[in-house]
Each structure stands twice: as C-alpha cells, then as structure tokens.
C-alpha cells in the first residue's frame, strides 16, 4: 500500500511555476497627505516624497497604507518631505521643482524626469513584482550611457555591461571580475549620459541586483525581499550626485590624523615581543608608521575583549612602550562571541538577551574562529550600547581604534552567513536576517564607533570595517578584504576604490602588497608607491605568506618604500585637507578623472590612473618589469613631479618609470601644502607648512587659490570651531605675481612662527620678492624672513612671519 507520501512534491521533479509579474497598472487615484504624494494603481502603487529640488524618493507599496520607514542608511534629518506644485492633466501628474520636472503617466505608471531645458534625465518604464515578493524596475539606457558607483565591486570603472548582486559576502577567493558580491553593499548607481548624471539609490538591505548587461536598451534594479525604495538624485554633474547622495546617507567623520598615516598589519603578529620589536624597527629604520594591527592571535582563544595570557601577558606594559614610540594599536574585533558559559561576554549577553535568535527564541549558533559562537543583534540599540560599552576594555589600555572583520557576518557553513530565518529585533520592528543582512556589519561598526566615542572623552575614534552598507562612511573606514598578491589585484584596486569613493566611502583602500599569496619585491614597491596616495593606507598580509614589512626585500626596496611612505607624511597637510573636504562635501579623496573631466571622452572608463584631490595625477605601474607606461593627461598643463617637465594635456604621453619612480603630475597653477617629514602623524616636530605653488605664470590672467584647513588632528574641538583656515591666492600681472594670504579663521593656533611658500617650476625667472631680501638656506632654517633660490628650474622659497592678519608680497620676473 502506498500513502500519499508517494506523490510528495519533491519526488515529482523540479516544479515549474509560471509566475505572473504584477505591475501597479494605471493610476486610479492619488492624494497628498503631509507633503507625501500617494499614487494608487489598480494594484498597489508608488509614494513620492520630495526631499529637495534635486532629490525625491519613490517607494513601491502593495498594502493600503504605505510603509514609509527607511533603513539606518538614510539620515533622518535629510528626509523631511518638501512640498512642490503638482499639476494634473488627462494623461499625467506633473511635479515641478526649480531643477526638475517629474512626469507620471497615469495609464502606465511610467516615470520620467526632465531638467529645466526639457532634456530627459531618467525614465523608469516599468515597476513590477512577483508573487514571492521580488521587485523589479526598468530604466532607459542610452548608447552613450556610463555607470559608476555601487561601492566595492571588481572589474573596471564603468559598470556598463556588468551585472552585480548586493549581498555582503566573505569571499576569501577569488576576487575575479565575475564575482558579483563582495563584503560591502552600496546600492547606489550613478548613470551618466548625454552630459547629464543622476543617481538611483535603492534603500533595501536584503539581496538586490543591478543589471546593466542583459537588456540592451534598458538597465534594471531588483530586490529579492522588502520594498523597492528608490531615491532619485539629480546631477547634472557627477559631483552633484556624490554631494547629494552623501547629504542623504552622511559623510565621513574627519579621522584623527594618525588614522591617515601608514599602517602595518599581518595575520598575525603573534606576541608582545614581536609587536614591540616591529615598532622599534620602524623607528630605527626611520620608516614612518602610525599603527600596528593585532589580528586574531592577540586574543585568548579568539574571545573578543580579551588578551592571550601567554603571548600577550602584559598589554598595559606593551601599550606604554608603544606610546613612547608614537605607535598605536588597532586590535581586531569580530562579531562572533565564543559559546562558553565561563566567558563573561557570552554569559552576560545570553542573560540579557543580546544575541540573535530565531522567532521561537533559540539563539543562533554558528561556527567561526572561536568554535561555536553567537552573534550580537546590533539592530537593537540596547544591544549596540552594550557592545559599544564593552570597548572600555580597550580604551582603558589607551586603544583608540578598532578593526571589525567577519561582519558580513561570515559563518563557516554552506551559506557562509547567518541563517535567513534568524530574527533581528530592530527596536520592536522585527525583521528576518534575509531582509536585514547587508546592514549587519554597518550596525556593528556604528555600535563600535559610538562606544569608542563615549569612552574616548573627546578624542576621535577610528573604526575599520570589512562589511558595510550605504552610510557606513559615517562610522568606519573600509578596506577591500582578502585580495591577493597579484598584479591584477593591484590594478583592480584602483577602479574598486574609485567607485567606493563615488559611493560615499571616501576613506578606503586595499591591503597594500596583497593579503593572500606571496608578494614580491617589485609588487610591494609598485603597490606601496600607489598605496601611499590611497585614502586608507595599510600593508597587510596573511599567515603563511612571504613577509611584507617594508624591509623584507633588502635595502634598495626598503629605501624606495621609505621615500614613498615619507612622501605621504610630507603631504599630510594636503591629504588632511582632502579628508576635511570629504567630511564637508562628500568629495572623495582619490577621484577618477571622469569626476573632474566629465566631458573628456578619453576618461569615461580610465582607471589605471587617478587624481588625488583635483590637481595631482597619479599613474601607477601595475605590471612586473615595466619601466614605461602611457599616461593620459587631461586638459591643462601638467608638471612632472620628479623632474619638472611641463606636459601639455589633452593627449597621451609615454612616462619613464624606473623602479624608484611612479609617474606623478601636478596641474600647473595648483597649490600643494606640505609639512615636515614626521615618523608618525602626531610627532611633535612643529606644524610648519610649506605651501607649494606649481607652475606659476607672471602674466595677466594667471589665478590660483587654495584654502588650508588645520586643527589639532585628534579631538572633536573642530566641531566647536577650533580650527583655522588659511586662504592663499596668487594673481598674475604683467611680469609679476602677487601672492597673498589671510586667515579666514584662526581659532586653532598652529605651532609655528613662520610660513613658507615654495614656487616650484615657475614659468618665468624670478628676479626679486618685494620687501624681502635673499637669504641663505641656513638663515631660512633659523627662521629669518626672506627668500632663497631653490636651485631647481628657477624655484624659490619665501619665508614670512605667520602673522594672524596675513600678508602679501610681489614676485617679479626678470626682464627679457
Ligand atoms: O581570513 O583575522 O579579511 O584581513 O587577517 C579570515 C584573520 C579572517 C579575514 C580578513 C583578514 C584577516 C583574517 N580574516
């Protein structure tokens, strides 16, 4: 006898369900309620909320009452609904702001955005969902469409022709172009076409997809769970999109200066002696370094918030010596808490219900380093506060920075993460892990940042994270995970980090030298040369691989690395200024050329060179045994940093690059503020700045300007106005240049008596500097006012008193 079991569905072979994708159909009614426009279709509908003249949110809903909650990515204060006039015609609803007009076709729900000239910026043709709850929207793509953003993705800069998934994933290997999901998910797509750019930000922390490949004339955005909640962000320039996107999801917090120094890491420095020896070696060898990382071996059997009693028996003593040397420690903290009833963090967390559990109440157990582990539920502020508070353990030791790893969260099982039915209690609005997944890592870093801030009493915390979601920039720097010591991975880091920058993550970078596999002398040299110009600068390598501390390959290599790491420290004032700009405007520290030269057809997918700020062009060597490369210079005149050669832009040049040189160019007419070489960012050797002006011209029409931001580099005083802004200007006249400076604000008093101005490679021969006499190098070093000939191609250094009221001088050209 057979029971009904005989026809169990699984026995019947794969089931083919013909799914019907639903659309909202035509608009049947619309209403305005508290500045929110609810447009109802035959089935569900779309809510429109204008956040400004340039930004609106469109959220698809299926229930009677649309749910207007957002994820933690979006800043509450930037989400206030604004009212704009709406006009209804037979066919359309038309919303008009000062910058855009949104047309909503009543019959089809087609959404079109035009600029004031009537040019179509964006058109969404379709929005639909299947019975399982997946959502999908389709947009027009043009023959000249280019795509950017999307955070941490492999492959090239322009994402046209690509398909990506957003699902935070621990991918130890391989980081190949075809890998669609890595550790971070930033569902922001920037679409540039026809001299217009706009952004679409999908605020959905479940699995989502962006497809710029499969549909020829359209691209699509889809999500597997939750709602299609999309923000339209207007340009017209890509810079406007980045600025507005970061006003919506936040900008980086200005890091403490030490966090933008050079960092050294290894999986792992195994004991206290090794760490101290490492710190001493940096100082003996005079290679600047600010931070040493402690990877998982510092812990007592991988229990977070502990030190191993055998290998790190006296952490306080170790910290004291490191403090003397000016080296800081950043220890790793993973989310997995070892299941061990004798371990305080576990016991407390279980008793106080801090760990992720299923609806039925059982705690989710997963295996990671410490063996069977449990995972804090950072969706609850109560748990986040508890976790943040635990960091007092570290801050009491003088630690000010934490490294969050494995926070996708990574779990050693088939799915590589937490089970999808685990719940996040989300302050009373429970959601499944399936819907919450991409937020997990960010909420961990948020808890960490806030806990550190609480205990550091006014000092700026530093958090580094592997996983994140849109908005992560507010809490943490991001490194790009387990790359390998492959030349290909060095090259791939450029577009990856550039797109991260366009996606709000201004403070990011790869493991310099490569994490897994074995580095080589050349690869380490070339990667470090490039890496010292990336916003986040850490050399890190895996257990069992070739050592890659800067002295691992003999003296020649060591010398080159010392020079380049030193260059990062000398350029610290310029770099710090860029971080300040990123905090103020969201502009990334390193930029693809297309951001600064959007009309230049040569740069839409150019990603083997990049800009540091606006005016420094970096062209790394990313192949072995290569001592030349082609470099594209955009419009303008570009001065070779190494020898002062002036190159006309708008063309390709062939650059020579023996091992000790990485091609670098500075745009004529730009200022770069340099400081003294330091062994660590806060070394007390004064704050002399040397404001370099490259390629000055003694002619009418020459104009250059720069504002140098300065503060104490470590406290939050700057948020209460404790900073200074030094504005420098150079204006050319017939046969002279007037250089003037003034403090827009001087509520931070830099430690120096004089200011220096260096004219590098001027386009004229300098005869005299008004009111100042020519002095010797020794007199300059002694602090005298005056000017000296610098020797290289007519350059000079001018030294003046650093008076709060500013000043000016005239540089005149030699006649003839
Ligand atoms: O690979 O903590 O990406 O930087 O050294 C397993 C050990 C876990 C992954 C991180 C890597 C870190 C390593 N971790």
At the fold tier of CATH, the topology name of one domain is Immunoglobulin-like
Q: DSSP helix count? A: 14
What value does the Rg take, in angstroms? 28 Å
Shape: globular
Name the CATH architecture of one domain: Sandwich
**Share in β-strands:** 25-35%
CATH fourth-tier homologous superfamily of one domain: glycosyl hydrolase (family 31)
Strand order of the largest sheet: 5-6-7-8-9-10-17-16-12
What is the tally of beta strands? 51
The description of the largest β-sheet is: 9 strands, antiparallel
Kindly state the percentage of residues in helix: 10-25%
What's the average pLDDT? 96
Oligomer: single chain
InterPro entries: DUF5110, Gal_mutarotase_sf_dom, GH, Glyco_hydro_31_AS, Glyco_hydro_31_C, Glyco_hydro_31_N_dom, Glyco_hydro_31_TIM, Glyco_hydro_b
Keywords: Glycosidase, Hydrolase
Family: Belongs to the glycosyl hydrolase 31 family.
GO molecular function: carbohydrate binding; hydrolase activity, hydrolyzing O-glycosyl compounds
Characterization of this structure:
Belongs to the glycosyl hydrolase 31 family. Residues 586-672 form the Glycosyl hydrolase family 31 C-terminal domain. Residues 691-740 form the DUF5110 domain. Keywords: Glycosidase, Hydrolase. With 816 residues, the protein is α+β, with helices and mostly antiparallel strands. Among the domains are: 27-249, glycosyl hydrolase (family 31) (Immunoglobulin-like, Sandwich), CATH 2.60.40.1760; 686-813, Sandwich (Immunoglobulin-like), CATH 2.60.40. It is built from 14 helices and 51 strands. A nine-stranded antiparallel beta sheet has the order 5-6-7-8-9-10-17-16-12, with no helix packed on it. A nine-stranded parallel beta sheet has the order 31-30-28-25-21-20-19-33-32. Helix 2 packs parallel to helix 3 (315-325) and helix 5 (381-390) crosses helix 8. The longest helix has 17 residues, at 440-456. The mean pLDDT is 96. Ligand MIG is lined by residues 172, 267, 295-296, 332, 405-406, 466, 481-482, 515, 540. The site of ligand MIG has 12 residues, from loops.
